[in-house]
Amino acid sequence: MAATGRELEELQANYEKLRRAVRRHLFFWLACIVVALVARRAMNYPPMLSWPVFAVPVVVFGADFIRLIACRIKLSRHRDSLSE
To answer: pTM of this prediction?
Structure first.
């Protein structure tokens, strides 16, 4: 039982680490959006040129989002197995 408790602690620590990373990615993405929209208006570019600011972070940070979701699923399954 101690090994499963230890595994649960490791999973929880990993999950919290991934949550912090995704939160930092989200703040960075929002800052990029604000800067891009201000720059676009200042230079009178058409709105169509703003789409890379929305699309590129999804591609670049997508792996961390997927890892977070997978870790959340693994953590909930591990908790369920311990409660039974």
So the answer is: 0.78
